[in-house]
Structure formats: structure tokens, C-alpha cells
């Protein structure tokens, strides 16, 4: 299983994702592909996300049963803690 969620993604990227995956909710795409195809799709997301952000999650052989990655500007960043991937929240930026 593969899930990609995007925010503020350009229309051409959303269209590209819709070719490969089913959009079950605005900006949330699901599918079931091999590692090679998943990596090819994610490379396109990373290249075309522009000012948006995205996350990918897929079934994997970790203790949690899945793995994930992010790209773009987002407060949530993956961090490895003793072999377990967790989410770290970056501080809220205050513009004055």
C-alpha cells in the first residue's frame, strides 16, 4: 500500500499523481505499486512540488509496519531515533 498526501501542489503534479494513483480525497492519493515504481513516483513529486509540501507512506518491514518520507516546507520532519522513524515538529516561525 502506498499513500501520498500533498498540500499546495501545482495542478500539473496533481494531474501526474492522478495518472498513477486514486485520489480518495483532495490531495490524498493511494495505490499499490512496487518499490521501483513508488520511488519513480516520489522522484516526480520531489521535483515538481515547488512551494507545496508532500508526504509519502508505504508498507514496509519496520517495527511500525510502514515507512514514510516528506518533502517541501512542513513543520513535521522525519527523524530516526534508535532505528525507529518518528516525527519531529519544527518550531512555528513568527514573522514580525
* Secondary-structure-derived class: alpha+beta
Strand order across the largest sheet? 2-3-1-4-5
Named CATH architecture: 2-Layer Sandwich
Distance between the termini: 43 Å
Number of strands: 7
How confident is the prediction overall: mean pLDDT?
A: 90
CATH topology: Alpha-Beta Plaits
- Supply the number of helical segments: 2
The main pleated sheet reads as: 5 strands, antiparallel
Radius of gyration: 14 Å
Question: In percent, how helical is the residue content?
Answer: 25-40%
CATH domain class name = Alpha Beta
Counted up, domains total: 1
H/E topology pattern: EHEEHEEEE
Strand proportion, as a percent range, falls in: 35-45%
Q: Would you mind describing this structure in some detail?
A:
With 96 residues, this protein is of the alpha+beta class. Helix content is 25%, strand content 42%. The chain has two helices and seven strands. The chain has helices at residues 11-20, 35-48; strands spanning 2-7, 22-25, 28-31, 53-59, 66-72, 76-81, 84-89. The strands form two sheets. Strands 2-3-1-4-5 form a five-stranded antiparallel sheet, with helices on one face. It has a two-stranded antiparallel sheet with strand order 6-7. A hairpin with a 2-residue loop joins strand 2 (22-25) and strand 3. Helix 1 packs antiparallel against helix 2. The longest helix is centred in the middle third of the chain and has 14 residues, at 35-48. The protein is flat and about 35 Å long. 10% of the residues are buried.
